Amino acid sequence: MWMNRLDQAFAALADPTRRGIVVHLARGEASVSDLVSLFSLTQPTISSHLKVLESAGLISRSRVAQLRPCKLETEQLKAVTDWLEKLQEIWEGNYQRLDALLAELKQAQKEEPNK
Amino acid sequence: MKPAEVSTPSDREVLVKRSFDAPVNLVWQAYTEPALMRRWLTAMPGWSMPVCEMATHVGGKYRWRWRDENGQEFGFTGEMLEVALHSKIVHTQIYDPGDCDFGSMGGEPSIITVTFNETNGITNVATSIKYASKADRDAAMSTGMTDGMEMSYQSLDGVLAG
Q1: Residue B131 needs a FRET pair 20 to 30 A away by CA distance; which of A11, B66, B76, B96 works?
Q2: Which residue in chain B has the smallest CA separation from A96?
Q3: What is the mean pLDDT of residues B57-80?
């Protein structure tokens, strides 16, 4: 369940417009009409992007205020960045061993320039 | 060197970038000679690479397998699609789960593109992993998460044992 949510979040963030919306909402809440004028897209297009972000748990929309402002759900965004961090750790672990190996190869080349 | 940068440029792709303080011929050697590959490509702490059959010609098949301290194994196999000395390697990659339950990674092969670029003795390496479908990428991402979590549990064990 939780993992499905994370997959959804990645799929949602794969779209440049939706990433743009997330970046904008990081600065504060915004209404649909704010986003329509900001991104120069139609209201239905913005609404469908918001629906994807909302079902991925990345944003929430107020049920109270008439304009239903959109708000970033930082918890879910953190799950995504945490995942990228873990992946980064695995690669970086390999690369640090590669750094050490390359230093050794460079040294060997210096000592035996004709090899 | 700056730590590796991981990004997801599209819903089917993961991109990893890193620079190395060495000329491209040495980086190339480390990426293509099995004896050298096994020394750094060990996947995760506690894992080794007992099988590393490499191919550096188009159409050649490679086979990589990893094993952990408990004898659990998983691997990758695939075919070389493009090899340009000191500049580019493109290959397919099929996940062989072995006896590791890392979850499904999808049946379709991914396409791995590694590019090498040297400037002033520093070699920039970019690795793109393109999954056959978004579902495959999501499955692989879930796997990555599992690996990562396993790793933190292991470090936690280490701290508790100390």
Answers
A1: B66
A2: B40
A3: 92
